[in-house]
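queue> pop job 88
queue> type: inverse folding (structure -> sequence)
queue> payload:
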């Protein structure tokens, strides 16, 4: 989700967040509250757990991009509230709307098919439905990005085009509310080591040290750029040298 948010903010001037999650308990309420704070007032918001087609058709005008987060939660909501035939109808309506929508749509979805097959029938049904829906969405999409450990893998389209604004010197932009994870998701996409180092060193001292702590504690996960940190980070100056 954080990568999708950043992508929208980097490429468009106005954007709307179409949220599908429902507040079902205190933990979810707190999670949603934190997400709202992290997005900030620049994002318009529509909360719609079921009728996202209607929202796309009637409530999303006036912005360059709409971010749907997330499609998998929406499918779960639909699965619990309608019968099997209606589920397919909901999916078909969504696909038709997306194929005709003259607007930039960014969709976040979970890949639930990579885990263990669920033991219970409803879980297996949901897993199958989510997998088929993701395939249909991917077929419609211009670009498909698979996120692993905060890093993007381009499955469809050109990832270099996605990165062009942040790979050129002087185009790195970090906002004060960005978390270390969000900043790392930008820096880690830069192939050129000198630009990567310049990007890190351009941060203020507090952000550099927060990011360094985040990355150095995960060097066993972040190969490549993580190795640069462990080799070139100066804890006294807070810089990559």
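queue> result:
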């Amino acid at each position: 989700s954080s990568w999708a948010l950043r992508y929208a903010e980097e490429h468009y001037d106005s954007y709307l967040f179409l949220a599908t999650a429902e507040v079902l308990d205190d933990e979810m309420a707190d999670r949603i509250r934190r997400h709202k704070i992290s997005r900030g007032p620049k994002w318009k918001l529509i909360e719609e757990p079921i009728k996202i087609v209607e929202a796309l058709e009637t409530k999303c005008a006036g912005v360059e991009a709409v971010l749907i987060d997330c499609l998998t939660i929406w499918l779960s909501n639909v699965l619990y509230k309608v019968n099997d035939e209606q589920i397919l109808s909901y999916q078909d309506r969504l696909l038709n709307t997306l194929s005709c929508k003259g607007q930039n749509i960014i969709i976040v979805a979970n890949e639930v098919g990579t885990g263990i097959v669920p033991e219970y029938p409803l879980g297996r049904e949901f897993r199958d439905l989510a997998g088929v829906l993701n395939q249909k969405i991917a077929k419609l999409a211009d670009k498909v990005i698979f996120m692993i450990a905060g890093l993007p893998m381009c499955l469809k389209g050109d990832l270099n085009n996605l990165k062009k604004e942040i790979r050129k010197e002087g185009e790195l932009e970090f906002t004060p509310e960005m978390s270390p994870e969000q900043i790392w998701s930008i820096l880690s996409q830069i192939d050129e080591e000198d630009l990567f180092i310049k990007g890190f060193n351009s941060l203020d001292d507090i952000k550099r040290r927060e990011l360094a702590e985040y990355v150095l504690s995960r060097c066993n996960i972040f190969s490549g750029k993580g190795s640069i940190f462990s080799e070139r980070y100066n804890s006294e100056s807070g810089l990559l040298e």
